[in-house]
Amino acid sequence: MPLEEIGWLRRGACRSSDPELFFPLAPSPVQEARAKAVCATCQVLTECRSYALKAGEADGIWGGLTPEERRRSRVPEGVRRPAAS
Ligand code: SF4
Asked: What are the UniProt keywords, alphabetically (predicted)?
């Protein structure tokens, strides 16, 4: 990814946060909530979320979304139903 496409990252509220908060080895609801609280204050949340969805970032909190939330947002609503057993 060219640097000019992710230049917004330099203005991210997470720049001064512990990377483990956004890329934990063992994710937990508390860690996710703390990371999302940082994202909620971030001036580049929209750019970050858009990038992560477009790039298919599989790990970590990006733009206030967990990996599972990003996966769900990429799948059309009608396709999300569990398969019949
Ligand atoms: S939205 Fe969250 S992950 Fe993205 S740059 Fe801002 S603080 Fe970091």
From this structure: 4Fe-4S, Cytoplasm, Disulfide bond, DNA-binding, Iron, Iron-sulfur, Metal-binding, Transcription, Transcription regulation
